[in-house]
Amino acid sequence: MSAGEAFVTLATTDSYCKGAIVVARSLQRHGTTRSTVVMVTPNISEQSRFALKDVFDEVITVDVMDSDDRLHLSWLGRPDLGITFTKIHCWTLTQYSKCVFLDADTLVLCNVDELFERDELSAAPDPGWPDCFNSGVFVFRPSLHTHSRLLDHALQHGSFDGGDQGLLNSVFSSWAAEDISKHLPFVYNLSGSSFYSYLPAFRQFGHNAKIVHFLGAVKPWSSSSQRDESCSHTMEQFVSLWWKEYLSSTPSSEAGKQQEIQEG
Ligand code: UDP
Ligand code: MN
């Protein structure tokens, strides 16, 4: 057990909490020895918070509005950067020496603890622009100094894509060419777009997937694929797998729902 290392995810809505639960359960299913941490905003429901507490080692409430005056002011002017500011809050988790951030829309398919052998900032290429990294999976070192740098950069320059990925790629701009060990293999952040843009490679290498990332507008929890028995596409199979993990891992929250129904 490496104390001081953690997988970290983020959920600012009840929907993303469903994804976060699957992140934690899939990590645990594959025997992670690291801590699991979820950052949440105060607006999530009691029921979601309860379900998260069940599966995560730590549920950390981040209230970006109150935590920093500078941020509060900028928030008023730039509400679009809200989620971004919340995500980069992960750099304040200085009780950990090293972390791996996983988007709440990822599914872990095997033990990926070897990611902690990598240094900041390690990430996989973005399928849309491979000289940028995708910020759905990345290795980082919590540091208040780095957090400040990220905030300052966001306040001064915003983000070229309006989200955390643009900001992080601007700040960690040496990623593309400096050190190949910071390039995670694509199988650590496999997204559906590869299925559509390079099907032969997907067929050849897709079975090596270690972490699947459901990036884009349609998330597993917003689709109805759990009822689809005849999953022909591999991506659909991953969605099925997501549902299997979700339904197998929510006894207490499901019980809570049942109770609510019964109590009318
Ligand atoms: N997120 C969140 N609430 C939101 C949007 C995003 O908590 O309303 C978090 C969540 O962890 C999510 C991550 O930010 O996985 C990045 O957003 P998303 O995965 O939707 O972006 P994509 O990967 O599709 O570009
Ligand atoms: Mn994502």
UniProtKB/TrEMBL annotation:
Keyword entries, A-Z: Cytoplasm, Glycogen biosynthesis, Glycoprotein, Manganese, Metal-binding, Transferase
Protein name: glycogenin glucosyltransferase
Single GO MF annotation: metal ion binding
Annotated function: Glycogenin participates in the glycogen biosynthetic process along with glycogen synthase and glycogen branching enzyme. It catalyzes the formation of a short alpha (1,4)-glucosyl chain covalently attached via a glucose 1-O-tyrosyl linkage to internal tyrosine residues and these chains act as primers for the elongation reaction catalyzed by glycogen synthase.
Family recorded in the similarity comment: Belongs to the glycosyltransferase 8 family. Glycogenin subfamily.
GO biological process terms on file: glycogen biosynthetic process
EC primary class: transferase
Cell compartment(s), UniProt: Cytoplasm
Cofactor or coenzyme needed: Mn(2+)
Keyword Manganese carried by entry: yes
Pathway where it operates: Glycan biosynthesis; glycogen biosynthesis
